[in-house]
Amino acid sequence: MLRVTANTQLMKEIVDLLSVLTEEAKLVWKENGLQINVVDGSHVALLSATIGDACFETYEVEPVEIGLELAKLRDLLSLAGPSDLVELDYDKAIGAINVRVGAVHRILRGLDTATMNEPKMPQLSFDSRATIDASKLSNALRAAKFVGELVDLSLDSNQMSVSVTVEAGESVNVRFDAGELSELVAANPTQSTYSLQFLDPLTRKLASGLTDSVTLEFQDKYPLRLTWNSNDGGASWVYFLAPRVTNDP
């Protein structure tokens, strides 16, 4: 049994961020909130969301898993007015999801969750991290994408830098001194390379008002881990992106 009411902004946030990586998602509804883990088709990036029950207007749930095509829900949300609520009503015996957005009612068929892989969260510890304004991070990555598709992230005890250099000789380098960062931890200087194909779309969405700040954790040849909170801390997000490792000496 599932009867949930949410504001449109929350549902758009969930669908928009998940859609950066996938068009299908398994929504694990628990007694105290919603848990979602998704991975892209090439298994390069992983996004995990924990949305507490307090983020919803109403929340009546017996634990259940629902598979959804995100595009169908995204289409419905595009019809919502600023004050409309989204109602979800699911009966496991029937397998149908009743979705109401304003005056619109649509019945969706859930996907078979047994065929949907559950990505495992990497268990990693990092020696370096920085917390930065989401808009500043997005702008730096957008500038990097003007030049190339791979970005070098660097940290030392004084600054974080975002840089790209290509064979043609063009480059972009954006530096953030320690005073511009909410947090900076770097026992030793470190650098790693990541794909902007995945980072740029995600950080643009975060900078649109979903969160104030983002924490980056990385080191040489390690995945990048981004973490942030939204909805007054009621929702927590974790994003992993595999590094681009070369065999250059």
Secondary-structure element order, N to C: EHEEEEEHEEEEHEEEEEHEEE
Could you describe the largest sheet, including whether it forms a barrel? 9 strands, antiparallel
CATH architecture of the largest domain: Roll
Backbone CA Rg: 20 Å
Helix proportion: 10-25%
Predict the CATH topology of the largest domain. Answer: DNA Polymerase III, Chain A, domain 2
CATH superfamily of the largest domain: DNA Polymerase III, subunit A, domain 2
Strand content: 35-45%
Average of pLDDT: 93
- Low-confidence stretches are none
Quaternary structure annotation:
single chain
Total domain modules: 2
Key traits:
9-stranded antiparallel sheet, 249 residues, DNA Polymerase III, Chain A, domain 2, 2 domains, Proliferating Cell Nuclear Antigen, 4 helices, alpha+beta
Chain-wise SSE layout:
Blueprint (H helix, E strand, L loop, with lengths): L1 E6 H11 L5 E7 L2 E7 L5 E8 L5 E4 L2 E6 H8 L7 E7 L4 E6 L2 E6 L18 E6 H12 L4 E6 L3 E7 L5 E7 L5 E4 L3 E6 H15 L2 E5 L6 E7 L4 E7 L8
Antiparallel strand pairs: 1-5, 1-7, 2-3, 2-6, 3-4, 4-18, 7-8, 8-9, 10-14, 10-16, 11-12, 11-15, 12-13, 16-17, 17-18
Helix pairs in contact: 1-2, 3-4
